[in-house]
Design brief:
By secondary structure, the protein is mainly alpha-helical. The protein is built from 1 helix and no strands. It is elongated and about 70 Å long. The relative contact order is 0.07.
Length: about 80
Amino acid sequence: MEAIRQIQTVENGTVHIQLPELFWGREVEIIVLPAPQSIQPVKSSHSLRGCLKQYAQPDLIAQEPDAWPVTASEKHEPR
């Protein structure tokens, strides 16, 4: 589906949109929404380090280096 998005200022109750030939002779749906007044910039974080520290279980931290091999062997070892 092809879509066109434009932000224009309404002058005397009208807006003008020039459509490409792809739309000529076809039925189109027109939806008008007010544009947001101010766009807040998203704060970019370069690292997610520490974002899950609230879920840490200090008593299990010592087991972390061996956690993957132990779990993989439990799941995939022949019984």
